Amino acid sequence: MTDALGTALDTAVQRFVTSNPVSARLAREAAEVMPGGNTRSVLHTEPFGVRIAHAEGAVLTTVDGARVVDLLGDYSAGLVGRRPEVADAVRDVLDRGWSYGAMSEPEADLARALVDRFPSVDQVRFTNSGTEADLMAVLTARHVTGRDRVVVFEGAYHGGPMTFLPGSAPLRVPFDFTVLPYNDVAAVEAEFSEAGEKIACVLVEPMLGAGGCIPASAEFLAALRRLTRDHGALLVLDEVMTSRLAVGGAQEAYGVRADLTVLGKYFGGGLSFGAFGGSRELMAAYDPARGGLTHGGTFNNNAFTMAVGPAVTRLLDAETLALLNRRGDRLRERLAEALVPIGWCVTGIGSMMTIHPTPAPVTRWSDIAGVDVRRRRLLFHDLLARGYYIAERGYLALSLSVTEDHLDGFVGVTQALVGEYADLAT
After folding, report:
1. What is the pTM of this model?
2. Which sequence positions are flagged as catalytic?
3. Which of 162, 134, 143 has its CA nearest to residue 237?
4. Domains (ranges, CATH) in the chain?
């Protein structure tokens, strides 16, 4: 421990406590009825989480009256921001009624919009979240292959029940997992050589999300595609986050075709959403006319998400996504340059990135496993105090509402903090 770092963090935390008395009170009250005072663990920050009263465009207003630029984008679920198209779709449902207990046209419209975006997907099933969709995709792979083993990677997050970060094991579903280093072709080749006939699927994020915005190499994804095909296993791409990289997601960007694709987050426009899909042959497992599996879920086709989804897909055309991702690439380059003096780096693709208190390169989760988390906490509190909201782990995901002025201001603040952190770098 360096005394300077500890002192700086203590000062930042005390400033946060002093500046947010209403958030502090609400956190205490919430803790009486919810463990830890919340029901989404990623939002917990020490000593308590900041609470939001209002949002407009890319600006959040806290319950204590502070206005902060939202660079987190609800962990990528808020990609489209708070757009009128989304509000109009919700109002239309309110006007005509909801909770039908039956099917309605918007769900077929959304399914068609998704099928049109992803060439590897002929049919989809909806769920309430990306977590559910990941689980259903893996269960589908196990069912159609008749095999049990699932190959996954260190640092991966496929929803709460399939997280492969420290401390996640107690809540992990009891599948037969093989956990390998990310971006390690040799390790995957060795696993298939030894147990290829047991492997139902490889489940992989084209970019580790919660694991640090670490992109897959093209060689790595190509090897996964080759090995699964050669051994009769399925390649399941978790594109809950990376589908924003292009109209066809990371599959389009990398030129790889999944057997099953998992979607979630922003397609719901900020409402609950998940989906998984693949070829007509694979998805026939759910067709009642062919003795299909039963896949329930009261809110799978909830009227609000089904109505919002088609509006979101229309908003996110190729030009819009390309512009947003180019903006993210430029921001990442500027941040990387600003962080050089203190030996930090930034990883990611397009409009998603994570700042790491460690030098580059970062190509797998183990490269960041040993960082001093106090540096991340200090950055989070210092940015929040200066009007910028990111995740405590250093993650940010740009929304369509973020402007160049917002990003210029953010880079300027980061540069100023780098100067302040110079004495904390060792």
Report:
1. 0.97
2. 157, 238, 265
3. 134
4. 38-68 (no CATH), 85-315 (3.40.640.10), 317-372+381-390+401-421 (3.90.1150.10)
